[in-house]
């Protein structure tokens, strides 16, 4: 049934009748007392992940798939199938959960004194550091075949390419940026405010979920997730919805399934994203982009309202030999999560070709 939905990026992907998704065994990597970039220690930190396929004898077929905002380790299930770009028959796929998404260490699952609103600020680089430890300590690899990320997952992918320039051979960033540009930060501030102005939020010390704030946050995402033409042409019907109001209610229900402090914390991490803050670059984002050695597939959607195509093109032009590809879709940011069959096929074809190329 088209109305059957599962979590992916920042919403639910369509689960078409008869389609099954691969799913590895959910696992936890204990990080211990984990030092964050800001100098704080997050005690008993942990990283959630699943794997698909098997690591080969050469240990050179690992593909890292980090999660996105409002998403988890299921984000690229539409590519992780036998005949798809991330075939478990070819690759050993490690799908990780970001800090603060409710699976890895988060405001919602960390004991006092770092619970709830007291959870420390997380940088994209903190996620990358934790993932590096997972790959090198648990799987004992010295390099990875690729990293494939969407939205905040793309932020992590680009950061990997800067932080560990010789570790990842191929980097795929889909509908996400290496730098959070000003308009995106302002948009996220609007989303945070929608939640935080609910009196029940109580500055993050809520007893019961701030339902009104979360619903307002869902309304915010409904307006930004696709494109103006998507609404005008009634493409919400492809999701089994009857009206724009149905799409709003769909997003409200989705956002209410999340913990408010997790959402706020993740949004702050998103707002702070900038590869130029990597040690050694002194805030010079262009120098950081120019330092990338990995082969890059930089994919943007022409109607994305979160990550505007001109800003992404500007970044791609500063990455040596980056392959910049535009997804021709009216699905906006949601295109990058493969929420339409056409977009899923386009992304699959592009990623397949890129990973198989010898450039």
Can you tell me about this structure?
- There is one protein chain.
- This protein has 359 residues and is an alpha/beta fold.
- The protein has a domain at 20-180 and 280-356: Rossmann fold (3-Layer(aba) Sandwich).
- Helices cover 32% and strands 18% of the residues.
- The chain is built from ten helices and ten strands.
- Strands 3-4-6-5-7-8-9-10 form an eight-stranded mixed sheet, sandwiched between helices. A two-stranded antiparallel ribbon has the order 1-2.
- α1 packs across α2 (152-163), α3 packs antiparallel against α4 (211-224) and α4 packs across α6.
- The protein is globular.
- The protein starts with a strand and ends with a helix.
- Mean pLDDT is 92; it is low at 1-23.
Assembly state of the chains shown: single chain
Number of strands: 10
Give the overall pLDDT as a whole number: 92
Please name the fourth-level CATH homologous superfamily of one domain.
Alpha/Beta hydrolase fold, catalytic domain
The strand order across the widest sheet is: 3-4-6-5-7-8-9-10
CATH topology heading of one domain: Rossmann fold
Major beta-sheet overview = 8 strands, mixed
Helix-residue proportion = 25-40%
What is the CATH architecture descriptor of one domain?
3-Layer(aba) Sandwich
């Amino acid at each position: 049934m088209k109305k059957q939905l599962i979590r992916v990026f920042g919403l639910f992907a369509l689960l078409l009748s008869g389609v099954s998704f691969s799913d590895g065994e959910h696992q936890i990597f204990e990080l211990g007392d984990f030092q964050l970039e800001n100098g704080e220690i997050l005690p008993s930190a942990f990283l959630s992940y699943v794997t698909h396929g098997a690591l080969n004898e050469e240990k050179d077929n690992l593909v890292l798939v980090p999660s996105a905002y409002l998403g988890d380790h299921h984000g690229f299930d539409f590519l992780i199938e036998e005949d798809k770009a991330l075939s478990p028959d070819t690759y050993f796929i490690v799908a990780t959960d970001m800090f603060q998404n409710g699976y890895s260490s988060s405001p919602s699952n960390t004991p006092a004194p770092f619970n709830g609103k007291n959870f420390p600020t997380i940088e994209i680089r903190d996620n990358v550091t934790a993932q590096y430890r997972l790959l090198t300590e648990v799987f004992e690899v010295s390099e990875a075949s690729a990293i494939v990320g969407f939205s905040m997952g793309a932020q992590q992918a680009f950061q990997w390419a800067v932080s560990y320039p010789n570790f990842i051979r191929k980097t795929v960033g889909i509908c996400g940026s290496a730098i959070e540009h000003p308009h995106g930060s302002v948009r996220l501030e609007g989303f945070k405010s929608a939640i935080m102005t609910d009196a029940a939020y109580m500055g993050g010390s809520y007893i019961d979920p701030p339902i009104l704030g979360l619903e307002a946050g869902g309304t915010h995402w409904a307006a930004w997730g696709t494109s103006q033409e998507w609404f005008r042409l009634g493409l919400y019907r492809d999701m089994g919805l009857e009206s724009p109001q149905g799409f709003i209610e769909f997003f409200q229900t989705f956002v209410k399934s999340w913990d408010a402090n997790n959402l706020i914390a993740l949004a702050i991490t998103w707002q702070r994203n900038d590869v130029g803050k990597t040690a050694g670059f002194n805030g010079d984002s262009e120098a950081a982009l120019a330092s990338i050695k990995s082969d890059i597939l930089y994919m943007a959607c022409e109607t994305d309202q979160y990550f505007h195509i001109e800003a992404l093109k500007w970044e791609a032009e500063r990455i040596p030999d980056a392959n910049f590809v535009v997804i021709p879709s009216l699905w906006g940011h949601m295109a990058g999560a493969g929420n339409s069959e056409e977009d899923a096929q386009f992304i699959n074809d592009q990623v397949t070709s890129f990973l198989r190329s010898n450039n």
